[in-house]
């Protein structure tokens, strides 16, 4: 079997092969792009071929940036289009491609990679661990009144909902005082540059978020609101008229459900204003917010807490560390301390024991022969890396071994972040 990088001339073969691996057929090209594979970078794709040259497997990466805790931006290849023809599964093709890909990423100087797992049982064995999580929040419109916290509610700022001025966004927000902005409804085709700019501002401040390169927007590659699928967009503007948030939505079955693809904002006040807007849509019977971060405050802002029904709680971004010291020193830290991590990488046959020292928000990480505080697999280090999974949770689950009672508590304090990681970009 041969594994080789592709060229532009291999695009059709690559696309046909990955679709065959999943038992699907390529979509018919549409004017203006919109095909997920139109954003592929052919110099970052791999083909697995039999001895007689037949393609049987594919793998690729996108060039993204990942926002780490501390608002540090780092290169993060996004693994995608991984597939093996049904006739050649369980013959080592996938493992060979993943090993080849990881070696290629290291050769490019990259110290981590990310992916969205089609199946949760596949990628752990290659060193990837779930690092961010997402969920849906469904609100029945007749129960969607938003109530201000008691400490803030006044006679001049009553509860708001479908019957209390849904288009007025001048009520107080949760963290930033009164919202003096406004909301405007635009068609997706009218606000491409606005979406790109607002998303970029958002992702630079949100740990766990990925960049959306300009070519994705230009090619309309991906899911709404990037794709050409018809959508309305509620654009929020601040008091000076500058866009600082949006909600992409459509109304359909069943029973006039308003589905919000994504809500992108620079702060909680703007999110509340957009939520109030869509919850006040007269023609909707219910509103479904896709990709809401766990523990998001919107549910607590509902006057009826049970009106917010959580579902679809799932993993999203998986992280794989390729260079442990570089990865740990790249992110920001919020507690001082010292921890010895004994890290196994079974897939690559590697092992390292590292002394992690954090002081004043910066980390130093070096090899050591000191006794370990924690022993863990590289996939578990990927899970705790962004702060979305507490090390103590994995200790209790039997994934991580704590060699002294206080080690898990210290690890929780070190790896915690000022803001929970979240990713909603699909690739």
UniProtKB/TrEMBL annotation:
Subunit structure: Homohexamer; trimer of dimers.
Region spans: Disordered: 152-182
List of residues binding acetyl-CoA: 82-84, 90-95, 118-119
Protein name: Acetyltransferase
The family this protein is said to belong to: Belongs to the acetyltransferase Eis family.
Source organism per UniProt: Streptomyces sviceus (strain ATCC 29083 / DSM 924 / JCM 4929 / NBRC 13980 / NCIMB 11184 / NRRL 5439 / UC 5370)
Active site positions, chain numbering: 123, 427
Classification via InterPro entries: Acetyltransf_17, Acetyltransferase_Eis, Acyl_CoA_acyltransferase, Eis_dom, GNAT_dom, NAcTrfase_Eis, SCP2_sterol-bd_dom_sf
Keyword annotations of the record: Acyltransferase, Transferase
BP terms from Gene Ontology: aminoglycoside antibiotic catabolic process
Taxonomic lineage of the native organism: Bacteria, Bacillati, Actinomycetota, Actinomycetes, Kitasatosporales
Gene3D superfamilies the record matches: 3.40.630.30, SCP2 sterol-binding domain (3.30.1050.10)
Domain of life: Bacteria
Basic and acidic residues: bias regions: 165-182
Record GO terms (molecular function): aminoglycoside N-acetyltransferase activity
Xref: CDD domains: NAT_SF (cd04301)
Every N-acetyltransferase domain range: 1-151
HAMAP family: Eis
């Amino acid at each position: 079997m041969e594994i080789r990088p592709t060229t532009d001339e291999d695009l059709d073969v690559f696309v046909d092969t990955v679709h065959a691996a999943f038992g699907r057929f390529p979509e018919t090209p549409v004017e203006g792009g919109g095909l997920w594979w139109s954003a592929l970078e052919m110099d970052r794709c791999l083909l697995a071929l039999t001895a007689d040259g037949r393609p049987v497997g594919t793998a690729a990466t996108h060039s993204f940036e990942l926002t780490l805790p501390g608002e540090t931006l780092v290169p993060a290849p996004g693994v995608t289009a991984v597939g093996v023809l049904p006739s050649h599964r369980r013959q080592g093709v996938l493992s060979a491609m993943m090993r080849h890909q990881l070696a290629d990423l290291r050769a490019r100087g990259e110290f981590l990679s990310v992916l969205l797992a089609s199946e949760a049982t596949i990628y752990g064995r290659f060193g990837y661990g779930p690092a961010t999580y997402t969920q849906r929040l469904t609100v029945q419109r007749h129960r969607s009144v938003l109530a201000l916290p008691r400490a803030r509610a006044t006679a001049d700022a009553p509860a708001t909902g479908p019957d209390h001025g849904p288009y007025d966004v001048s009520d107080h927000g949760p963290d930033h005082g009164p919202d003096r902005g406004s909301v405007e409804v635009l068609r997706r085709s009218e606000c491409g540059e606005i979406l790109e700019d607002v998303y970029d501002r958002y992702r630079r401040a949100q740990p766990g978020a990925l960049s959306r390169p300009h070519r994705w927007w230009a090619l309309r590659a991906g899911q709404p609101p990037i794709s050409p699928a018809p959508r309305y967009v509620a654009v929020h503007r601040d008091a000076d008229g500058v866009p600082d948030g949006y909600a992409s939505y459509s109304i359909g079955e069943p029973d006039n459900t308003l589905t919000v693809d994504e809500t992108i904002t620079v702060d909680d006040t703007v999110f509340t204003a957009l939520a109030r807007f869509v919850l006040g849509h007269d023609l909707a019977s219910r509103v479904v917010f896709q990709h809401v971060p766990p523990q998001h405050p919107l549910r607590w802002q509902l006057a009826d807490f049970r009106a917010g029904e959580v579902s679809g709680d799932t993993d999203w971004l998986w992280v794989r560390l390729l260079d442990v010291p570089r990865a740990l020193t790249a992110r920001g830290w919020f507690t001082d301390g010292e921890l010895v991590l004994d890290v196994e990488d079974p897939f690559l046959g590697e092992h390292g024991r590292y002394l992690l020292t954090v002081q004043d928000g910066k980390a130093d990480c070096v090899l050591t022969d000191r006794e370990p505080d924690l022993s863990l697999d590289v996939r578990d280090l990927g899970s705790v890396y962004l702060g979305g999974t507490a090390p103590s949770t994995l200790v209790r689950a039997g994934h991580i071994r704590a060699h002294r009672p206080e080690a898990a508590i210290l690890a929780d304090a070190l790896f915690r972040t000022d803001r929970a990681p979240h990713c909603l970009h699909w690739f």
